[in-house]
Amino acid sequence: MTRINGKTKIVGIFGWPVEHTLSPAMHNAAFDRLKMNYVYVPFPVESGRLGEAVNAIRALGLAGVNVTVPHKEKVMKFLDGLDGYARKIGAVNTIINKGGRLIGFNTDAYGFKKTLIEKKVVVKKKVVLILGAGGAAKAAGICIAEKNPEKIYIYDIDKKKSKALAVALNGTAVEKTSLTDILKNTDVLINATPAGMRPGDKPPVEISICKKTMFVYDLIYNRETELIKEAKAKGLKFSDGLDMLLYQGIRAFELWTRKKAPVEVMKHAILNEIKGRGGDA
Ligand code: NAP
After folding, report:
1. What pTM does this model have?
2. Residue 196 and residue 198: Cα distance in Å, rounded?
3. What's the rounded Cα separation, in Å, for the pair 160 and 153?
4. 3-state class of 116 per DSSP?
5. % of the chain exceeding 90 in pLDDT
6. Residue ranges around ligand 1 (CB below 6 Å)
7. Is 113 a catalytic residue?
8. Distance in angstroms (rounded) separating the CA atoms of residues 51 and 273
9. pLDDT tens string 1-38
10. Which of 109, 107, 106 minimizes the C-alpha distance to 73?
């Protein structure tokens, strides 16, 4: 464990709630391994106090923070600058403090893209179905749209959100009734809904009639979802949300410290933390 002294640099996470975050385990393990004088702390920040919390980054000289639910969009107005993905997606999950100037980044997009590369998922000229049209779906969708897919379909239980994301991505908003037909031709299925986070949650779609080559990307990382269990049972290639979580953390670590992140150390730290919590995070 890092020995805290007068030179310790502080990073952390702003969220509400933050009790379940896996990020302190991941980042503190990396700081320990690289013998860096940094510490990562969870900060529970209530919605009405976000502006004060952001000012505290400047006042207390924090090196930077991650930002999670429910602050990713609202935090933008308190910052001094935004990188390209944060602006495009309209959400920030990482802030760096450059001598009092706070710059917002969206490293979820990096985490999503890096996973596609690691898993060798081809998107160009392929059919992609995105379930959900919230912040995570937008980050994923913008990365997908950059890769020139044949078609992007979006389904969210909230039709207005599906339509808004479809317009932003030049995709097509679809109804639940057409999902079975679309799934027959889908090459990449992305679950960006919370369906699957709780034990007993049904998978957001039935994948019994999908192609054998379909890639299933479930952004949920707190447990193995029914969707992932079904993908495994069918022998499909898949990724759960842990890879995205890991790589968004790696990018944040590198933005704060300008040092190469120890990927394996951070990965093991997440897995150990989940194991320590009895399998579910
Ligand atoms: P969000 O903003 O709440 O968006 C989720 C959307 O899905 C909402 O519009 C919701 O509608 C809709 N929805 C809920 N159940 C649905 C269903 N069965 N079928 C279709 N649409 C449904 O949440 P988010 O921040 O985008 O996060 C979505 C998921 O991604 C969460 O599980 C989160 O943990 C995960 N995530 C993972 C990472 C990672 O690093 N792996 C990063 C970010 C997010 P209503 O609002 O009407 O319920």
Report:
1. 0.94
2. 6
3. 14
4. helix
5. 95
6. 69, 108, 111, 131-137, 155-158, 161, 192-195, 197, 204, 219-221, 241, 244-245, 248
7. no
8. 31
9. 668 999 999 999 999 999 999 999 999 999 999 999 99
10. 106
